[in-house]
Amino acid sequence: MTVQQRAQSRCHWLPELERDSSPLYKALVDQLARDIADGNLKPGDRLPPQRLLADALQVTVGTITRAYREAERRGLLEAKIGSGTRVRAQQTEAPGFRHLSAAGQNSIDLSLSTPIETPLRQQQLSALMERLAGRPDVLEAALHYQPEQGNSAQRSSLARWLSAQGLPMAADELILTEGGQHADFLALQVLVRPGEAVASDALTYPGMIAAARQLGLKHLPVPMDGEGMRPDALERLCQQQRIRLLYLMPEYNNPTVAQMSQARREAIVEIARRYDLLLLEDGVQYVAPEHRGQAFYQLAPERALYIFSVSKILAGGLRFGALRAPASLITQLSAGLRAQCWASSSLPGAIACEWLASGMAETLIDWQWQELAARQQLMRECLQGYELNYHPCGLHAWLALPDPWRAVDFVQRAAERGVTLIGAEPFCVGSQPAPQAVRICLTPPPARDQLKVALERLRELLHEGPSLKALLV
Fold it and tell me: Alpha-carbon distance 207 to 321, whole Å?
């Protein structure tokens, strides 16, 4: 028996390729897509190892590698270390990426990063709306189209507030957006072409993962340590791949809570300049000035963008945010926003900017910091002895599970006990293996006593350990 015959006998999927003028890797991907559509391959089916399939088809391993990568980019396959390359379940978004709670009626939600509920929030909003209802300029602006960059008075007001918070910027550097996710998507859509590469922490915000996938971008993971993205790993990746944009969360990574030192930020800027990378910093997880490092746009103003949103400090329902960009990119980004939605809505911006400028926001934000500190203290008491990472301004914590727990089992068992969590899987970029850890959001429960109940249930579960059935799977 020849090498080809032996390989064919071991391949449970063996496509028949037509050797026409099209590249072989594309023909292979097209046949794979047809077999998935016809039901010959089902979600979860494992594809043959690359070298085995190459021997069976008498093509190079590079051809199979390129085909598998293209199929993964199209969303047909997913590769995981330890489990090979499998047919991907067809989904409209990244697993676990959602902005509304999936917690059942009797479950305490610790899965979403949201502002803490308080009557003060509604009271302030009501007073602001009454005040704005008597302002003809606000009503007039709300009835008309706005410039692509957004209402000029609102940009000026927001720039003044951000500058007072230690984030100095000018009004003409800002583009107003419909929240932070919109700013993220806009930057990727305008500045990165389909098929080009972006990079981020190996564990990062699921909204970024979903946006990159939706836009057909190649999303590359950068290995991390206790400060987040490792400069040496980024340097090696840049030597191997052409990367257009680097997505960063330096204040505290979502989900790991890693925070970059000043030296780490400066090292990344040096690499960005050496390899001509754009830097997109996500500042939606707002941090008080005394806990904040230097923003990337302050270190590299010519290539760094910054995302701001009121979602975590005022209200997610306002859908108001901003994108700070270098002057050289403003026209391009404004044109992209015009193509998407003409311009951001003026009324939510008027509410958000008045909220910030009036001084009411400071009262609300200060209350949230105090309440968050009390909730973090409660978490430390309930989960004492376990590996917890958190930030003084962080709305969530990162719990490394002790052996032999697996995150998927812990999340499932917690749900059975009425606590909704998210494991590491939705935060993983590409084929990176998920660590055995879970994100614990401290802010969704309206009251501390509900949070305490949920944390005590998690503590009991950690003490018990996984079931024998889970260990045998």
Answer: 15
